[in-house]
Amino acid sequence: MDKVQFHLDRLLFEREWKIPDLMKRSGVNKNTLYAIKKNEISRVDLKVLQNICDALSCTLAELMSYEPKGEGEQKGLLFILSGPSGAGKNTLINSLRDNYDLGLTFIPSFATRPMRPGESNGNPYYFVTRDEFHAMAERGEFLEYETIHGNYYGTHLMTYERALDEGNIIIKDIDVNGALNMKREFGDRVVLIYVRPTSLDELEGRLHGRGDADDDIRIRLDRLKYEESLSEHFDFLIFNDDVPTATAELAQIIRTCTRRRA
Ligand code: ADP
Ligand code: 5GP
Question: What is the pTM of this model?
């Protein structure tokens, strides 16, 4: 989180409060508050930040700002949503598109998995055969690609480079490995957001509700521990209990990170 700057020190100073005052009013524990005050926090839980903002009567944008380096080179920003299958990443992206006007760009990946009901070519993927996918990979057309749940998924290098060069704000769900690879590739241009469901039972229920086959559900749940183990590398954490609330949190993150560019 080295590019996120917290302004808690100043907000406390203006109110003539100390950390224990804020601790009592927000219910957030002392160590977390000190870490935020000193800008030494490694990952942010949006609920915690919201409690702090409520106690201070300030907005998230007043509490924190995002200041990527190299503004002159690649001007765009890429928001990546990762987390277990069924956590609601696509639901949140769709809800954001339908309910907020943030000028976001969505770039479909290439995938070899079968289309689900309601999907079409280009939404949410360009669906290709394994042979077509391998040929593209050999030609070096992918920025990164992964085998996930037995299928291939890849992000198209040139499309991302061009979109970022042109200053677009991109949002995309990518698995945890791909997300960390994108961060390595594009550095500060990438904001990593980890989406979590309320519980394992809830997650399983959602996968059944989406119509996934039992075997597919088992494969998706088997990957959960691995995904969770990498969640500490993410910049933000969103609990998707309720779609409108989680969408609002996502919109807040995007607004805060893009505010300086307006
Ligand atoms: P992901 O993209 O993370 O794999 P989806 O967006 O496809 O997950 O969501 C999985 C299923 O869970 C979908 O059927 C979706 O409608 C449902 N869902 C998503 N978010 C919620 C939520 N907050 N509460 C209840 N159901 C949800
Ligand atoms: P699903 O089949 O449920 O749509 O997606 C399975 C997983 O693939 C999800 O975790 C999704 O985020 C991930 N994914 C989608 N596109 C890409 C991509 O281009 N690269 C990588 N690494 N993962 C992707």
Answer: 0.81
Q: 110 C-alpha vs ligand 2 centroid, how far in Å?
A: 9
Of 81, 82, 91, the residue with max ligand 1 atoms within 8 A of its CB, to mutate for a pocket test, comes to: 91
Residues 221 and 226: their CA atoms lie apart, in Å, by: 10
pLDDT at 130 over 60: yes
State the distance from the centre of ligand 2 to the C-alpha of 174, rounded, in angstroms.
5
- Domain region containing 230: 77-261
pLDDT at 88: 93
Number of domains within the chain: 2
Query: Residues 75-90: what's their mean pLDDT?
Result: 92
Q: Which ligand is nearest to the CA of 82?
A: 2
CA 83 to ligand 1: nearest atom: 3
Which of the four pLDDT bands, split at 50, 70 and 90, describes residue 262? Answer: very low
| 89 and 142 assigned to the same domain | yes
Kindly state if the Cβ of 153 falls inside 6 Å of ligand 2. yes
Residue 151 and residue 231 in one domain: yes
Q: Looking at 21, 40, 67, which one is the last position of a domain?
A: 67
**What is the phi/psi pair of residue 129, to 5°?**
-80, 165
Does residue 72 fall inside a structural domain? no
Is it the case that residue 2 has pLDDT exceeding 90?
no
